[in-house]
Fold each of these.
Amino acid sequence: MLARATSLFVFMLFSLPLLAAASAIARQGPQCNTGTLQCCNSVQQASNPVVGILAGILGIVLGPITGQVGLTCTPLTIVGGGGNSCTAQPVCCTGNSFVSGAIVVGCTPINLNL
C-alpha cells in the first residue's frame, strides 16, 4: 500500500510541472481585451511637450490624460494574418482615436511575436 502511494506521489510530482509548462506555452497572441489593437509610428507619454504641441495644432485637449498616447496609428484587425502587419509599434489602446489615428489615447505597447 505504501509503495502504491509513493508511486502516485512521484508520478504527480513529475507530471504537474509538465502540465503547467504546457499550459504556459499554449498561449496564443497578444492580449487586448479592453481596447483596440493599433499599429502606431510612435508611443509617447501624454505629458511630452511634442504631444501637447501636436494635440494643440489638431485642436485636441489632452488636459487630464496621463499615460501613453499613440501617434499616427492605424487599426490592426488580424493578428498574424497576411496583408495586415505592423512594422512600427503594436499597441493596445483603451481611449479615443482623434483625427483618423493621428493621436490615440490610453495605449500600452504589446508584443505580437508571442
Note: Residues 4-28 have pLDDT under 50 and may be disordered.
Amino acid sequence: MENPTQNAKPAQLAERRAAKNAAFREKLRQMALPLAPLVQLTTGEVHPSFPGTLLNFWLLTDAQLEELAHFYHQRTPCRWTFHYPCPIAWAARMPLEEKRRRIGRFIGLRGCETPIRLKSEDEILDEARRARIAEEEDVLRGKLYWYR
C-alpha cells in the first residue's frame, strides 16, 4: 500500500497544513515576501546568491554571506563602500547569525539593527535604588527649603 503523505508533493503538504493552521499560513506568506535586488555600484549587476525572498535570505550560508559582502564592497572597504544606502562594518570572524544580521541591515530588512544591550536584574535594581534615593532627597529639599 502506498502512503499518500510520502507521495504528496511538498507544496500540497504545505497547502494542507496552511489550511488547518492560521499561524503556519501567515509564516508561509511572510517567508514568500519578495526582496528587491540590490545592484552593484560599479557594474549594475545583481549577485547570483542575492536572496529573492525572505526565506532565501534565512537560508544563506556563511560562504554566500561572505560573497555578498565582497560583491557589494563591504568586506574590504574601498571608495565604493560608503556609496551604498546602508554600509556595514564587516569582519570575517563574525558568527553566522551576526553576518546574516549585518547583510539583512545592508539590504534594508527591518529587525536587523544592532541589538540593544539588555540590563541585568542587578543593574535594574541598582538603577531603581538610585532613582528612589534621588526622589527622597528631592522631597527633603522641598520640605527644608525654608531652612536654607
Note: The mean pLDDT is 86.
Amino acid sequence: MQGGPENIPLGVCTVSQSRDQLTPPSRTESTVFSLSHTESAWTAETSPGKCEEFWFAIHLMSTGGSFLACGVVISGLWFAGQCQKATSILGPVLLSIGLMVLVVGVVLIPITKENRKRLKKPLSHYRPPVFNL
C-alpha cells in the first residue's frame, strides 16, 4: 500500500483504485480459484505418523490393559482374603472386560494396516458393479 488510510484524499481516486488500496495484496494474490489449481495444494499431503494411524487401537489396548491390571489386583485381594464381598464380583468382571478390550485393540492393528495399504493403492483395477436384472 502506498499510504495508510488517513492519507487517502477523498474524491481523487476512482472506485477501482480505492478498492485496490483497501484490499491487502496477499488476499488478491491467493484466491480460491488460484489455490485450487496449484499442484502443491493437492499433492503435498503429509502422511500421518504411526500414533495418528493407530490411535484407536492404542487407546483400546491401554484401556484394556488398565482394566486387566485392576482385575488382577482385585482378584489377588480376593485370594488373599481381603474384602470378600466386593472382590468376589469385581475381580472377574474387570479381568474379563480388560482382556476382551485388550484383545480387540490387538486385533485392530492388523486390520488398520490392511486398510492403510488398500487406501494407498490406486483404483485402476476397480470395476463398477454390474447389476443383472
Note: The chain is about 70% helix and 0% strand.
Amino acid sequence: MDPAAERKAKGGQREDTLLDPSTFLPPSPLPAPTVTIEFCDRVRSNKPQLHRATWVSTELLLTFPPPTLKAVTVMPLNADDTAGRFRVWLNDQNGPAELGGFPELKVLKQRIRDVIQPGVSLGHSDKKA
C-alpha cells in the first residue's frame, strides 16, 4: 500500500517517517558523480530551506568544479510525506548514498571528497576549529 493510502486508512494521520532510513528513496541517477539536494517547499514561507539548498549547491560546485562533480540538482518537494525534508544525496559509480539532512557544509564537503577525491585536501575545510 502506498504511503498516501496508508495515511488515509489510518484516519489521515501521518506516521513520522522523515528520519526512517527504510523510507529513503534516492532520485534517479545522472552521470556520476552528481549531488541531489532535496528540500521541502510545501510551505511557501519556508524560504530558508530554498536559500540553504541553493547556497549548498553553489558551494559544492565551487569546491568540486566539473568534471570532478558533474552536476548538482536542487529538487523542491511538495508532498505530505516530504514535509520538513532536507536531504543531500551523492550518486557515484557505486550508486546513490544519502549524506544526511542538514549537515554542516564542512562535514558535507568532507563526505563528498572522501568518495570522489579521497586524499585530496579541502584546505580550510579540513582544519580543526
Note: The longest strand covers residues 34-40.
